[in-house]
Amino acid sequence: MPFVPVRGKQLKYLDSGDGETPIILIHGAGSSALIWHQVQQHLENASLRTLALSLPGAGGSDAPDNVDDYNSDAYAADIRGALDQLDIHRCVLVGHSLGVQNVISTLADHGEGLTVPAIILIAGGACDFARPPVLGDQREAIIEGFRAREDSPPETPTPEWTREHRGLPKNVRHRLWNDIRNNPFERAVGQRLGELRDRTGFLLKLRVPTLIVSGDSDTVVPLERTLKMYLNLSPDMRFMHILHSIGHYPNAEVPDVVARIVEDFVKEHAT
């Protein structure tokens, strides 16, 4: 698995398949690039190139000690930095969960010179919530609160987690679970402390075909939150696919279905 140097860190990525326009896959808050394993396999068979990036602290990527390296602003800079280092200036962007916020932040804050013919956003809500960075005494109280209750996930996955990731081979599930267990303390804290920006204005002006994907059984980011993002996109640029009886991790629960959805959308709008 190769690494790319970005802003003083080494980030691991999984590069699969061939194609002129790579599909960049961005994971969520606690996951790693491995969550895309089967999606990548299916898309390679469809003659498409994918690149799944593990952000700082995830899946073997460097884990800085500074909690401020773990928020959407920092992640967006890392994503664009990785693309530049890999000489990728035209790509499809795909985000899952917090990866949706990170993809939108990349486009909004670091999109100059980057050509993105299509966007796919999975189970990520509306990106309409604004939160200032947590500072001062409140910041220290949150850090201490995390330290007080810090504990590792169990050695083996819970039955619910296994069900929600049942589309991954057992050995890949095991590796992904270990990635989650090895998440640094700073990652969880930084994602709680960092600033979030209301991206509604950006989305209303976005002129890129954008596919919203959600499971109607998602209890982490309820369907109505994702529907709100759909309504904030230009009517002629927005597309939606609802997966029935699927939860928050469709890329791991039904990766073959997600891969077909991605394949069809990319081949229609980005090739």
List its salient traits.
eight-stranded mixed beta sheet, single chain, 8 strands, 41% helix, Rossmann fold, globular, 11 helices, 271 residues, alpha/beta
Taking pLDDT < 50 over at least 5 consecutive residues as the criterion, the unreliable ranges are none
Number of contiguous helices: 11
Count of strand segments? 8
From the 3D structure, determine the CATH topology: Rossmann fold
Largest sheet: 8 strands, mixed
Shape category: globular
Helix content: 40-55%
Secondary structure elements and pairings:
Blueprint: E1 3-6, E2 9-16, E3 23-26, H1 37-45, E4 50-53, H2 72-85, E5 92-96, H3 98-110, E6 119-122, H4 136-148, H5 159-164, H6 170-181, H7 185-193, H8 200-205, E7 210-215, H9 223-231, E8 238-243, H10 250-253, H11 255-269
Parallel strand pairs: 3-4, 3-5, 5-6, 6-7, 7-8
Antiparallel strand pairs: 1-2, 2-4
Helix pairs in contact: 1-11, 2-3, 4-7
General description of the model:
This protein has helices spanning 37-45, 72-85, 98-110, 136-148, 159-164, 170-181, 185-193, 200-205, 223-231, 250-253, 255-269; strands at 3-6, 9-16, 23-26, 50-53, 92-96, 119-122, 210-215, 238-243. By secondary structure, it is an alpha/beta fold. Strand 5 (92-96), helix 3 and strand 6 (119-122) form a beta-alpha-beta unit. It is globular. It starts with a strand and ends with a helix.
Question: Can I get a quick summary?
Answer:
It is built from eleven helices and eight strands. It is an alpha/beta fold and 271 residues long.
